[in-house]
User: What shape does this take?
Amino acid sequence: MNAMPDPALAADDELRQLMHEVESGTRATGFHAVKLDRRSFLKLTGLAGGGLVLAFSMGREVQAAAAGAGEFAPNAFLRISKQGSITIYSKGPEIGQGIKTAFPLIIAEELDAKWSDVTVLQAPVNPAVYGRQSAGGSRSIPDSWDQLRKAGAVARAMLVSAAAASWKVPEAECTTRDSAVWNGKRKLGYGALVARAAALPVPDGNAIKLKERSEYRLLGKSYTGVDNRQVVTGAPLFGIDQSLPGMKIAVFHRCPAVGGKVRSVNLDDVKKLPGVRDAFVIEGNGKPTEIMPGVAIIADTTWAAFEARKRLEVEWDETDASKDSWSDFVKRAAELGKQPVGAQTLVNTGSVDEALKGAAKTVSGFYTYPFVSHAPLEPQNCTAWAHDGIVELWSPTQTADRALELVAGALGLTADKVRIHQTRVGGGFGRRLMNDYACEAGAIAQRYAGPIKLVWSREQDMSQDFFRVGGFHSLAGGVDAQGRLIAWRNHFITFTHDGKAPSSGANISEQEFPAQNLPNYLLSQTMLPLRTPTGPWRAPRSNSLAWVIQSFLHELSAAAGRDHRDFLLEVMGEPRLVQGGLNTGRAADVIKLATEKAGWGRKLPEGHGMGLAFHFSHAGHFAEVAEVSVDGNKRLRVHRVVVAGDIGPIVNMSGANNQCEGAVVDGFSTMLGLEITMEKGRIEQSNLHQYPMLRMANHPRVEVHFIQSDNPPTGVGEPALPPVAPAICNAIFAASGHRVRTLPLTKEGFSV
Amino acid sequence: MSALTLRVNGKERSADVDPNTPLLWVLRDSLGLPGTKFGCGMALCGACTVLVDGEPIRACSTPAGNLAGKNITTIEGLAKSATALHPLQEAWIEHDVPQCGYCQAGQLMSAAALLARTPKPTDADIDSAMAGNICRCGTYQRIRAAIHTAASKLAGSKA
Assistant: This one.
């Protein structure tokens, strides 16, 4: 081969870096401030009126616009008009996690705004002004909490100063509530204070005392999403709904085996088809995260473009393309799993071999879970327009901040030549942490004189994913004569793209539970080479590891004849913080709450069973109890799932509950029947008939309970998902005696 | 290509399209009605559900040429006016149903067809009527609750 690094491998390394960034709340620095032209800015912010001075970077323009309109805007997060209307800018991508409602609520709380006075707009993309503008790792709330509280508190302090000055009273005698400053029974609405407040110097947000939780008026209650009226009336909010004058539709056809290149294609035939404007080959840079080789078609309508794609005849050069085979992986993993210890030992505490020999009971099991697709309901798409030396994008992305430099690099531009408008996102789940569709759209737009909208088909969306990686665990464990957990050995068979480190989402932490909760623990791994792209999928790693670990823990407690709740609490031990952030006290509290609310231990009808599981991820402690029934034909019904979580104080109770309800459905849907397989490098599932997501008739009843501790608030988009699968599998065992060790459940003969 | 006339949301609309073009793309690309969503293109997900003479159909798999003379209702036409939402839309907001929101236009259209036929639906009626609509975010429990709420309100307003 050659000495150049394989771009596909480099892309996987970037994906690992991306996952690290989204989970740690850090990101690469070096984002550039960019400017929007006035027309785009007005369109984006919904502002009207003249006198705007656009000499500032985006975001600062919010303030410039406010000043031009005689409004009060102490920072880029909010504006207050003389009429008292309050506009709050939500800086992060709305991907269904409810952040466009939650972020403004945090600002409004410190501002003491009346929620009905607030209008929410999507902020411009400019990380130099707003900081992180990504949705991933359940980091939005913890990363932005202080920033947003200060943004509101600064404005409130200035309004208080303005009111105190107009009344000639000390500020200490003024209070705020319902968008007004009060002094005894007299009040001045925020609108009336705009002119005076706008003339004041902006104080340092770090010097202002923020509210105690007991002082909250808005946070912790239920609010309907700020865009819900537009959603239910069909307003064009999403990426795929974008439309520009003269816009054409583009499709981009790639090799079905990742890494294949275009050898020849019948471009001349395709260009003659009705409605087709142009067709051309894009070589790409070989990175699945950016631009893979393929054929672009530009047509007048989506249907014309889709029909034209059916007429493409491409001969692919698959010399360097993926040859991955799931059936082969399964065979090799089964063979490797016979070895108790893999090629690399990651953790070796105590003496597992001796402990297993001395154990009163031992259990072993081989667990298998498949690759899965994100399958957001809005297929990947992006609108792009190359004009005036820049490329302007309207993109449903989870990482608008990161996309600026990524897209610019892929297009051979500097980041100041790329502008990104954030649209609402029709489902993220981690898929849109990647911006490959935006790179493709930009590259196509660079070759066309006018705006284009790239639209992927469902088939492309399903096969050109960065999949949740599959994996295998060969486990052994032991309990002593008192039924206590004393030994745990795991040979993890996973995947690697570069031969050095596990693929994105395919690693296991040395601190992964229960590493620090028992005396004898041996964790090792063997990596199989992989070409199929993998990436973060809702609660990366945790979404599969929790199933394996919490199921096997139940195998051990069942072997010991113990009540699983007691066993799990015993494994947690004394309340303490262990490495990785697990707080065993908070864990015990949610385990107790979930089991209490579920009626753990009560008599159930024949064929029914309850299962319990706990998992800590994304800074959230979650325990869940599932109640299921299984009949003689392995027909499964999940009647109810009780969720107990501790993520600190809740911002929007309705939003938090909704995330947990959705996580249960997502978790059940995925474990029940979803599986991506590949042979000869080709993904075998093409559309939803082969990827049957859960439907209305089979959703469990979900009940959610939160412990609103005084710990700092953390995210809820992900951590409720990992316990779902083990809770349901443990319940299946309780109901039927069948231990599920292979997912999806349909592989073991279950149906709903 | 030919001029095709369709009756959409009570108005005669004309589009210069091949009559085999699925209704979905006529609505989205030619008539400027993007509320009806593209999800799968194979009538599997229900995101493109619209009503044709009151019956829910999947617009992604229905040639527009078959629909001349029929009454087509899309999500943009579900409310009687901008100020008078359909009781289902109100219930959707009240229950804070949407997460990403992408499927909800299709969910609402299926639910509207259900209530028009079965004003007081049981859970089994809901299971059956909504079986063609996937919500990837998993808002089924809230959709169910919102349908019951809207049904109660409709029954109340008629009493």
Notes: The longest strand of chain A covers residues 485-496.
